Amino acid sequence: MAGSISRVIFILCCFVTSEQQNILKKDAFDSVPQLIMSAGYPVEKHRVTTTDGYILQLHRIPAGKRTARKTFSAKGKKTVLIGHGLLGSSSDFVMMGPDRSLAYSLADEGYDVWLANLRGTIYSSHQNYTKNNPKFWEFSFHEHGKYDLPASIDKVLSVTGVSKIMYIGYSMGTTTFFVMASERPEYNDKIISFVALAPAVYFANIKPIAEWLLKSLKILDQLRVQGIQYLNVRQDVREMIIQSMCYTQKPQDNICARIIYMFVGNDEEQYNQDITALFLARFQPASFRQFEHFGKIAMTDVFTSWEDGLWGSVRKYKLSNVRVPVTLLYGENDQLTEKSQVLRLAEELNATGVLEDVRPASSWSKFNHLDFVFAKDVASIFNKPLLTTIKSLFYKYG
């Protein structure tokens, strides 16, 4: 899905040249803790090791910017854990700064905010394998849900001392939760409520694309033959792509925008060249299996586990194991996690009595898949109403 965007951009870059410019801000490649500290917020780093040997770093904002450093205490505060999407990391929820990023807004509202980093990001490693070892990349979001999210939740509970937390997932971060609920249903007891942003469970809308890329072109198999084991683009190449393709005088000449909109839905009004540059500069590596697993779901039209591979048997995840209140928020113009597919998921959750609500994420009619995190006016068109929802859920269930 989003990985296809990066590949297409890379290919087109071979045909586009321009004078190199220093257009990325100097903090474009700063670590997440550096970004949080620079924004004036307290930050903590925590490490957790999964039962299968992956070491993950969580980032915590225990208090808001307005809270005096010497007086704040996170003990007993309402705690929120946020899970990122494909090609993302904890960076997604802070990179746009204090005025627009969700993590800062939550911290300023008095929440104890934790940001997850799933295996594969730069904030992950392994006890035995380096990232140059193909075995490191033998995972999909199945492992994210079975190992990474449970370990992260346990770490948050251990440090904070609270008995339950709220989980907010974005895109693949929602898939991760539904896998966890299916495979590790005991973790329902540790969640107050789940807010799903752009829920990524059903993909009938992209079945033709998945079949073309994975079945006809066999694009990932071809890359593996060339010794490429995971999706990544070197930093210098990313900078060249951004400088060559993402900064134009005329919006209609912006190749970045045109390619991205092809996959996520058109929203020129909420597009910002600087934001897109940051998004591309900070995108994270991903295993091929993550794309293949999404592809298997699209081609079979079943929310299936990986089992014995892309062409292997189909085993449906048990959505009936979800036992916490679930709020589904979709974009009216989201072309990846399409409205019709989210409503299909809503019907299943409603049948088991766990659906809290399903509704548009924003009143903005062009709200697309990336707008949940990167819309120019995300603070007003999305974060503000979301904060109201979170407050009411804590009041009702917390």
TrEMBL record:
InterPro entries: AB_hydrolase_fold, AB_hydrolase_lipase, Lipase_euk. SUPFAM superfamilies: alpha/beta-Hydrolases. The active site is at S171, D334, H369. GO terms for biological process: lipid catabolic process. Residues 1-20 form the signal peptide. Residues 32-96 form the Partial AB-hydrolase lipase domain. Keywords: Glycoprotein, Hydrolase, Lipid degradation, Lipid metabolism, Signal. GO terms for molecular function: hydrolase activity, acting on ester bonds. Belongs to the AB hydrolase superfamily. Lipase family. This is Lipase. The gene is LOC113396442.
